[in-house]
Amino acid sequence: MTYFVYPNIKRSQFIGCGRYLACEYAPEGCEEAQPFVSDIAELKEAALAMAPEHEGSAKRVFQQCSSSEDFFLGDSQDLAYLLALVHCSRQVHPGLPENIWCTGTIEFNAHGPRLKHVSPKGFDGKLEAFLSNEQNDRLFLVPLSNIQTRHKDLCRQQAVTILPITQAISHLSQDGFKGKIVATVHMVELSELAEALFASPAPPAESPYQGLFAFREQDADYFFGRERHTKQLLEKLRHNPLVAVIGASGSGKSSVVFAGVLPELRQQGEWEILNFRPKKNPYRELAAAYLSLTSPNIAESKRLSEIKRLTRHLQDESLTLDELLNGLQDRFPHASFVLFIDQFEELYTQNDKQISIDFLKALLTCLCPIRQREQIIRLILTMRADFLGRALNYRPFADILQTHSVLLGPMQSDELRRAIEEPAHRCGVEIESGLTNQILESIQHEPGHLPLLQFALSKLWEKQQYKRLTLAAYKEIGGVKSALADYAEQTFLTLNPEEQKQARWIFTKLVRPGHPGEGTGDTRRAATRQEMREDQWRLIVKLTNARLLVTNQKSGSSASLLDSEESEDTVEVVHEALISGWGRFRRWIDADREFLIWHNHLRNSLRRWLERKHERESLLHGTPLAEAEEWLAQRPEDFRPEERHFIESSLKSRNAARRLKRTGILVLLLITLAAASVFGILWKRAEKQQQEAARLKHQADEQRRIAEQHRQRADAQRLIAEQKSMEALSVSAKILSLSDNKAGAVLAMIKAAKIARTIDISDGLRQEMLKVFQEILSKVQREKFRIQDNLPIAALAIRDGGKLLAAGSEQGTIMLWDLTEGRKLRHFKAHDDMVSSLDFHPTAPFLLSGGMDHFVKIWNIDTQQEVLSLEAHHDTVNQAMFYPDGRSFVSAGENGSVKHWSLKMGRLLGVFSGHENAVSSIAVRPDGKLVVSGSRDGNIIWWDFESDQSKESLSNFSAGVRSLAFSPDGMLLASGSNDGAVRLWSVGNRKHLSTFSGHSKVVSCVRFSPDGMTLASAGSDTTIRIWSVKNGRELHKLQGHTAAVYALAFSDEGNVLISGSWDGSIRGWELKKGLPSTLSLDELLHAGCKWVRPYLGNNPDISKQDRTVCKDIEQQFL
Description:
- The longest helix has 98 residues, at 641-738.
- Among the domains are: 3-197, no CATH class; 226-410, Rossmann fold, CATH 3.40.50; 714-781 and 1074-1118, no CATH class; 792-1073, YVTN repeat-like/Quinoprotein amine dehydrogenase (Methylamine Dehydrogenase, Chain H, 7 Propeller), CATH 2.130.10.
- The strands form 14 sheets. Strands 1-5-8-10-9 form a five-stranded parallel β-sheet, with helices on both faces.
- The N and C termini lie far apart (98 Å).
- The chain has 33 helices and 50 strands.
- α19 (450-462) packs across α21 (479-493), α28 crosses α29 (742-756) and α29 crosses α31.
- By secondary structure, the protein is of the alpha+beta class.
- Residues 686-713 form a coiled coil.
């Protein structure tokens, strides 16, 4: 290590620059250096002038405290001290002497820092010491003004050269130069001195952390923490032909095989490795991997042709997988082989069930011959644990997995520490003390954290300062939990509005939604360039450069449509951690989940149709075709040309079949009429011959009898038709009720009941119908009303006794509804991004809104005019609410702060900081004397705005807080958390009272009823739950929403609870009133019409005839 030293000083091992040491923490016996003459800030300014990046250094300069004469006792303005400061930031040029002597003091004036000479007597002694034969140091920096003729003569006698600093450095760098040099520094040459002595800071080396990408074989040198599992897998592989690595998403399954197992195998001997992902055609991907190993230099056109040929033979079983692997032994007679199938769950998510089973059979068939080949071929696969259920459905595979699996659980703390620290140490980068511990604390007990950890470390690497990872940089990136989400959100916000719209379309097309009933989560999906427009692909390139997407570029244009993935560029989400970790992405998926699940089925149907050469039987028929026709009409922009062609071909086939059927019926009818005509002619002739005499006599009576018979028959047929129509409507109502189509069920019920009022039906049928109608209304009576607006709802507010409702949407709009009439009053654009919060003023006609666009706004709801607009936070405003006295309001931001504002002119009254993460919710006690804030850091802070102080901080049991609410009397506080729990707190002693468990996901909203006896909670699991505050018992579970519920509001009486959901609906739930046990048909009709009225008035898809179905019923009861 190079030191800047004083002459005639005994140096300690840790003390550089004589008595000065540049380090982060002082060794024992040292304290931070303080100036004797000038302000230390001036010295730092001088150092900053010499090395501009010095300001980024976290190190300080310490001085030795000993007063022994062995240590120099000069002041801290000396040149050595200044160079020590610069040495904090820059390394000394390689090749310079180990110890560099220096003297001189720093003078400060209007022109900046200058080097000033020292006293002649002191300098003479130092120069003589440097020139003595006992001293082996070779470079002495001195002020030019100190050099006199006698000093030049003294140096000449000792054969020591005196040179300006730049020439001196050049001499020292020459090979073979061993002499001493006295280097002179002019009083204004401090900057030149820094450039001569110090190297510029080197740019950071390439990051050893992989971000969201899996470690590959070439990254093995930086792969740490999974050594135990690597050893376990290798041991398992020695004795088994197949090993399945099973773990949660984000547990590092791919990395442990690529960077752990495969490099070890290569070191053990001659191993050849085929690796692939199943994707949309496992046979094709296997064929491509096989050719990459056996024919790596083949021309691209030939390669595509061979892949197509091998795929076809493997699929029609003219070439078995066993025979293909035998071919490997012929080509590499002395090698052993590993067939590694990564992300094996794609076999289930991207392929038909039959293809999955056929491919599994082919794999398992190879296992017995593998043993006969002395196990020279091994099969390794990785699979997400949530797809294990699908794998176990195939019994032969289930039997093998019982003994051939390795479950990859979370890494232990010591393993994570190695994964964090060892890659940095390999690159010579220091990790600030305490940083690793803070990272470990933030990911403790968090499932699937490895991708988020690697991403955070890669961002930390980019912000390193002089080969040092710091706590300050870690906080700047938002820590492990927020780094990815913050980065993705920041990248998204840099896009223009049209790009943001297209980004949503692109990201949702790259997701294969999971099925909640099967317990499978959302997975990423690879899409081809053919599915995107050119402007969308340009945006994809932009997002790929930002490392949110990854493209797989392949060349070749001769492949057919079936081989498009092989011949075209593909794109997918960089990692599934982005799906679960980026809030906006999750909201997009939840909002489109129904369509995405259906669209995935359509792609599978299209694939079958193409594979079967457009056979008619593979087209869509019946309900699937009706659904496709409906989705195509609603969302035409979401369909590729091939999908449109597939649906249109299905529609043409259906229409042709209908025409053929109608033609057949017409022909049959004509034949029947012709036969009937001939028979009638013959009958009339016979009748005329037999009854000619009697015909005239009875003609009048016969005509009357026939007319009456026709009338009776027509009445009977009409009665039967009406009765069958009524029965069909009743059955339809029951089915719709079971499928949760409540409005459709009630509408069908009303139509059936109206028919029943006009015809004579049996008592048994009437009672059965009344029973069905009673069941339907009993089921739907809790849902007082439903408003379907098709915009995801994020915020609600209610006033005027529950008559006026305000709703805020994801698109930044606010809607005002008159709930008494079920009528939309106004709809206006309020924010440039999602409306995250709404609150009505206690007395004035004002509505307070907060948004993701950083703004808080106040609106006059009578005039719809903007009264006040403030950029309240430099990030999303998560909540804003009026104070009970109406004179001020508070806001909470994503940046972790709570702000108090005056309503008059929007003056800022106070800023309150204390959370380490975003403040997701705030609540003001009804008396206005206390404000609480909850954060994703898991803490609840009680604020006293009058004293500008936080009273106390409560831990929410390590679960992030998402929602808060005071009871009407202000004695209780409820909190909703990320872990799905609702907790109740005592306001008086700040103690946790009880926990209500029932939600399976995040609780995004909690609200007390006006009487304080019940508590409502809602969240991402789509349910709303009503709890007894007294005993914590779940009173009601309200279901009907199909996406996350983000907002709740009670009516003033507390009998109606209003909910807003990401599914675009607002629902009113009747909590305290039910139907009588028995009702007449007319009473059921009236109750049904009353319930369905808002639906008929607001739903744009209702026909004109259905919209007036209740008109005569309502007039009758009026």
